[in-house]
Amino acid sequence: MELWKKFFLLFSSCIFLMIAWGIFNLFQVPERTVQTTTVNDISQPFSISFFSPDSHESISNLELKLQSNINGRASLTLSNPDSSFSEHYVLNSGSSTVKFSGDWYSNFFKLKYIPQDSTTGTLSVTYSF
User: Fold this and answer.
1) Are residues 45 and 98 both part of a single domain?
2) Domain tally, the chain
3) What confidence category does residue 54 fall into, taking pLDDT thresholds of 50, 70 and 90?
4) Which of 6, 68, 69, 76 has the smallest number of Cβ neighbours within 10 A?
5) Are both 39 and 26 inside the same structural domain?
6) How far is the C-alpha of 89 from the C-alpha of 78, rounded, in Å?
7) Rounded CA gap, 89 and 9, in Å?
8) How far apart are CA 129 and CA 81, in angstroms?
9) pLDDT of 86 above 60
10) 6 vs 99, higher pLDDT
11) What is the CATH number of the domain that holds 50?
12) Domain span at residue 19?
């Protein structure tokens, strides 16, 4: 086989592999980091801001799971300080699970907790952007 044919075959193979690698990476879903925070003292009102671990990442979705086990009742507000979005939840006595999944174009969210007559229990927040 002539030298120029070998070079052309090698060059074509390299170009094909680079294009295939680019297409493969184009359809890869970035790995989501799941984080969990537990609040043990729910007798007092609090506000917590949660941030994406990678602030340079382009955020488009939020998965949120709130698990509570409380004595009494409480209200919880999920909000996006970058927009007017807010979602309100009521937590009743006993075990409760609240899930949120949807479009989210910010690298953080805020939870505001207000006990109405709850004195003991826990609140667990699991989320990923």
Assistant:
1) yes
2) 2
3) confident
4) 6
5) no
6) 8
7) 63
8) 16
9) yes
10) 99
11) 2.60.120.1540
12) 1-30
